[in-house]
Design brief:
The structure is a homodimer. Chain A is of the alpha/beta class. Chain A is about 40% helix and about 15% strand. The N terminus of chain A is likely disordered.
């Protein structure tokens, strides 16, 4: 063992020397290059610097560095329609041949006629029927495969790229920056947990067990002498609004010190984070860029930001102004001059 | 940056040389010193060696190395009564002054009279009433604090040590061995998730979000202008039997390749793991040591092992014979000669 110990010591010493020598070079690397210099970027960097400063008054141990992010509108585009709903609509069209009765039955009739206004007018009830028809009655494995195949080909109507290419580059940099500072990064979204788990690892580097989302009941059983999990048409848990802190408690079991959202559905998650009893960070993405992405807030049906915006402004939470704070929005986009 | 790059290269080269020079020394360190040499220990080491061998036919990428462990009877003692139920009983006694009506009301009357036979005779209904009275109606923060305080002082009636000192040393070594080989280690237990999260990090090194367990509904609300989560007397999810693969899907979102249990409540988790479509490991702890711990299986009310034992024997799963396979059971115990 002596030889090994000496080697370990030599590596450790050399690594230390390198750290000292390299510190200046590392410090000069901007961890958030797609963010314009300004209050939002500065607030993020200040927060991370303070909670990671050992011996400082705001130091938080790595195990307690919990960061939670909403998904739709916070990490990727949610306009003109939530991606998961686009998937459901596409599935209805794909499966229409096997369901001749849908021709005469709402909400499927309107979906198949391409009348999305009529679908929207049916409200939540119609939406839930479409989701139930396309998200339940199959095994979890079959559902995952269907999601994988759809994500590999479906393209956004305006940007003409895969949906996973609509992740916001500044937020990808933020996720990487937090992880590099030993944060445990979670997604906490109203979206279906099994839909999201189809892309969160590849797109965001977030493993499936760090994704909190709305969930249906599954039932364990045998199919052809093999065990399967069958997706039932029964909601177990809705991870939106007050459901977000409830979901954080249920899945994560620890209170965040850092949270980012973009709509009123994130208000309670941000309030719960603000109650963290130490230094904590609350952020909102405000969609202000109709040219490069979309501009919407108080009057939007998708991702309405109204009460949470008032609260953020009143309490001094960080409100990211997409148009001015983000140098680049998408990795494939040319930076603005 | 040149200086930094040269340093990194030097560290890398030295680390490689060390790895070559130290390989022999490392190979000689037994990762499972509390396990006697034998079929169980060999099966574990063979499995880990095969799935971690890059380029080998059974290699599994680190992100897919999911290991799930039952808790009661698999990682710590569950006799003569599940620890969480001992906690509930102690809480009933502690709160009796505030509930004068309990004197005349079952199951509390029998609990307060110390008549555990009568409590047991009331079956699941009595047990659920005791759990509801002691686990709901408070905030999640208050409940955690109560659990912390209890775990810090309550002692096991036979071993006279803290319950957290009744974790099995061979299993602690196994958890560490798997983590050292880049496994993602989870607890999947019928126990209450919030009770377990009170000790899993300290005792097992498992963070709260890697604990899957039975869960109640919580409700977000305001209390004195501060947000709280109130524990409701309503079951959300029971993580036992078929609930274990369902819980694995719900919380983890990935299929295990390694699972360990000790009772019939683990049968479906082990079957689900056995369906992993690559090399997978299924293990059972068989309690065979009445002298150092307990001996029980097919006829025990607590931790009954009957159908799962038959299945394990028929399918060649690893059955740990506690008496013969474990050199040391508890860290504080002197090893047997």
């Amino acid at each position: 063992m002596r030889k090994l110990s000496r080697c370990v010591a030599a590596v450790a010493i050399l690594a230390c020397l390198c750290a000292i020598g390299g510190a200046q070079a590392i410090a000069q690397t901007d961890p958030l290059p797609s963010w314009n210099d300004g209050a939002s970027k500065q607030a993020i960097i200040d927060f991370v610097t303070r909670v990671t400063k050992e011996g400082g008054p705001d130091f938080v141990a790595p195990e307690d560095r919990i960061a939670t992010f909403d998904n739709d509108g916070t990490l990727w585009v949610e306009q003109p329609m939530y991606t998961q709903f686009v998937f459901a609509i596409d599935e209805v069209k794909k499966q229409a041949n096997q369901h001749p009765e849908w021709k005469d039955k709402e909400p499927f009739k309107s979906v198949l006629a391409g009348d999305m206004k009529a679908v929207a007018a049916m409200g939540e009830k119609g939406m839930l029927e479409i989701v139930a028809a396309t998200h339940t009655g199959m095994t979890t494995a079959d559902f995952s495969e269907t999601v994988d195949k759809w994500l590999a080909v479906a393209k956004h109507p305006r940007f003409k790229v895969l949906y996973t290419d609509l992740a916001y580059q500044p937020m990808l940099e933020l996720l990487a920056y937090l992880r590099a500072n030993d944060f445990n990064v979670f997604i906490v979204s109203g979206g279906g947990v099994e839909f999201m788990r189809g892309f969160t690892r590849k797109t965001y580097g977030v493993p499936p067990w760090q994704v909190v989302g709305s969930s249906g009941v599954t039932q364990y059983g045998m199919w052809d002498a093999s065990p399967v999990l069958l997706k039932q048409p029964k909601v177990l848990f809705v991870d939106d609004g007050p459901g977000k802190p409830e979901g954080i408690n249920h899945f994560i079991g620890a209170q965040p010190i850092f949270a980012f959202g973009n709509s009123d559905g994130d208000k309670e998650m941000l309030e719960w984070t603000a109650a963290c009893k130490r230094l904590c960070f609350m952020g909102l993405v405000h969609h202000t860029d109709a040219v490069r992405e979309y501009a919407y807030d108080r009057n939007s049906d998708v991702g309405r930001l109204d009460k949470a915006l008032d609260e953020a402004l009143a309490k001094g939470w960080t409100v990211v102004d997409m148009k001015n704070d983000w140098k680049t929005i998408f990795a494939w986009e040319k930076p603005s001059p």
